[in-house]
Amino acid sequence: MRRDQYEAQADSTGKSQAQRFIEAVQRSNERAAYYTQKLSPSAFGSQEFQSPVKAGNGEYLMTLTLGSPPQTFDVIVDTGSDLNWVQCLPCRVCYQQPGPKFDPSKSSSFQKTSCADNLCNALPVKACAANVCQYQYTYGDQSNTNGDLAFETISFNSGGGDQHVPNFAFGCGTQNLGTFAGAAGLVGLGRGPLSLNSQLSSTFANKFSYCLVSLNSAAASPLTFGSVASAANIQYTPIVENPKHPTYYYVQLNSIEVGGQPLNLAPSVFSIDQATGRGGTIIDSGTTITMLTMPAYNAVLKAYQSFVKYPMVDGSAYGLDMCFNIAGVANPSVPDMVFKFQGADYELLAQNLFVLVDASATTLCFAMGGSQGFSIIGNIQQQNHLVIYDLEAKKIGFAIADC
């Protein structure tokens, strides 16, 4: 890990990278708390399409093109939700976004969805007014979007040139509140019927992959739908079914190693309670830091505290539990971690585990948190890994890569 990986520059809002990271950690904690509550009892041939993935304020963005003629937007990529939406005119309550909002009046292919449509019935919260399907969608950090469910033409560029797919369902959001700054909306890549990948499954062979650059990077990496990338070292783990919560990508995490040493964890720590749907492990691009169920998290903290000999400092200002003072250390060294999934070893290098959080680059913090009852693999831990979602074969593949 090099000190020059940390950049203290401000963004267009005047916030430094450290400030943006603190906010991203807070959103991860809020998202985990929301999941804890939610997961408790209560006519085209196969094509390929790539969109550049860009690092945002703790999330990743892709380009979405809607309408006739096309209107283009940068939207957050989220594998933990299903609804695709953009801010729409006329706005009742909208946050400030770069570029114009979607204007339905300028598209000849825009059509509102009726209340009887199957995709309207797939919404978790819906209403009906004048036979128009209306939605309300809330995210883990309590950000939310409200508006009309509509059909529109989605456009993309494949190897065969521009393609236009009609009748793509999306949310035309006219009341949107929360932490979406820097994006015009969101693309849901979950397993439910409303997600982009589900709606276009026949077009793109029910597969997609991404390779996330560092959040500090100005570079972009492709989010690929259809023929996914390949690498010699790809390992696959099955997607685990959780009938109580079918949107999420569950995988079976069996154990964790730190510095080559297995942690003493009972297998039940990562299991799903079949009666309630609680527990398990989710892969989620929309959460910034990994949140481990508390028994696993405490064991990981203990292991790193025994391995890392730098002085510990208070990390509460950054929302993190384990930080070290590395002043005067040119190249800090920390042990790697391995998530032992069913059939796949997922290796986490220093860049996936620790972040420099201050402008002086002297405070090195562990980029994970604790969660009640279940675990989320966040996007920092997915950086510089090729992640493949083969939904036809119901498996997820991993390989270390230079994204």
TrEMBL record:
Top-rank taxon, per record: Eukaryota
CDD domains referenced in this protein's UniProt entry, alphabetically: pepsin_A_like_plant
Keywords linked to the UniProt accession: Aspartyl protease, Glycoprotein, Hydrolase, Protease, Signal
Domain spans labelled Peptidase A1: 60-399
Keyword Oxidoreductase attached: no
Gene Ontology cellular component list: extracellular region
Molecular function GO terms recorded: aspartic-type endopeptidase activity
InterPro entries: Aspartic_peptidase_A1, Aspartic_peptidase_AS, Pepsin-like_plant, PEPTIDASE_A1, Peptidase_aspartic_dom_sf, Plant_Aspart_Prot_A1, TAXi_C, TAXi_N
The keyword Signal is annotated on this UniProt entry: yes
Active-site positions on this chain: D78, D284
Gene Ontology biological process terms from the UniProt entry: proteolysis
A Pfam family this chain is assigned to: TAXi_C
Family: Belongs to the peptidase A1 family.
Name of protein: Peptidase A1 domain-containing protein
Organism the protein comes from: Ceratodon purpureus
